[in-house]
Amino acid sequence: MIKIWIWKKIIFWCIWTVLLLEFFGVGGRVWAEKVVSFEQVSEKLEAMIREVQTKQSRISEKKLLMLQKKNSQEICHYRHDGDFIIMSPLCFLSSMKLDFDYKRAIDLVWNDIEWFEESYDMSAQEFEYQSTRPILSKQKNSIDMLYQKRLETKFLMNLLQSLGYSIRLHKKTFAYEKLGELSRYAVKRDMRNWWRCSKTNYLLAIGSLDGILIQPWEYFNINKTLDKIDDYCTGQTKQDLMFYGGVCGASTQLFRLSLLMPDMEVTKRSWHSQRYVRYYSDYIFGDDAAVYQMNKQLEVKNNWSQEVYLRTRDGQNEKYLIWISPALSTKKVVIERKQTGVKSAEVTKFVYSIFDNQLIGQQNWISSYTRKNYDGN
């Protein structure tokens, strides 16, 4: 009887070893490398689940207990391998996940993010906004299935562990999971019908904002950032300036973005006294932001306990400026933009609690324009 039991055990291990070798398709190299990809393991697990559900095969709890006993002294371990993580299968059974810094997670998958819906309503005189989830992506290889405590998962992970396998995952796999914990605010800027110099300078300015991190209670002055840029298109002016026409497209975008964030305070802002037509049509909303040397500045302060991360994204004919934060705010904003005279406007930002809709605070900006001038940026 003992010999029969031993032979059964040997046959059991041989069959599963052969099946794994055949499935992963790496022949004798498995024994040298002992590494299989996350995609291969996910595919195998899905196949096992289908077979069990259709009763083409079954998993014996007795065999699972044998595997668990064999792995009882094993622990979860992992190592970094460039853009990948090599993990032992038991890590999935212990629910261990890499705690990615959200900035690192965003940078890893930024090129995979398909699109951003604009948060700022360019046409409404009054609109409400509350930060939303998620950041959408083109594809997502979810690891949730490997972390489920179903019988098939336990069996496959224990079997891989007992045979000395490790699982290779791209770090993006964990980064995708982080995207569900973030909130975003986005404002776009249409670049059609721009003059060459204005467009060049705008692209330089908006590009300088990409990757900026604003810490809690920190001030950010866009003029100081614009002053560090080289290669501005000077146009016909002979003046030696800090920056040139076109950069106000970026400052206006940043101002509007700050209106969306409940805890982003605008501490300095000026308007275009003449060149406002490029920002409005017949109705003057009054939400532009002019910058000139240090005479006209745009400065914001992050009054939130969370840092915020600025990124930019290309659209078909526009540029997106996006603020990303690692948590959802408990506040919402209502933006009122109204023309108060022939050449004057008022913008008010109301901040409310999302729980009881109580008014928490507000900011107000009044703009007076002198004449319509189609020149400039």
Instruction: Find the count of extended strands (DSSP E, 2+ residues).
Output: 15
Regions with little confidence, pLDDT below 50 for 5+ residues? 25-32, 137-141
For the biggest β-sheet, the strand order reads: 1-5-3-2
The overall average pLDDT, rounded, is 82
What value does the Rg take, in angstroms? 29 Å
User: What structural class do you assign from the helix and strand content?
Assistant: alpha+beta
- Spell out the helices and strands N to C: HHEHHEEHHEHHEHEHEEHHEEEEEEE
How much of the sequence is in beta strands? 15-25%
Taking the sheet with the most strands, its summary is: 4 strands, mixed
Span of the ends, CA to CA: 90 Å
The share of residues in helices is: 25-40%
Coarse morphology: elongated
- Tally of helical runs: 12
What would you note in describing this structure?
The N and C termini lie far apart (90 Å). 33% of the residues lie in helices and 23% in strands. Strand 13 and strand 14 form a beta hairpin. Residues 25-32 and 137-141 have low confidence and may be disordered. It is built from twelve helices and 15 strands. It is elongated and about 100 Å long.
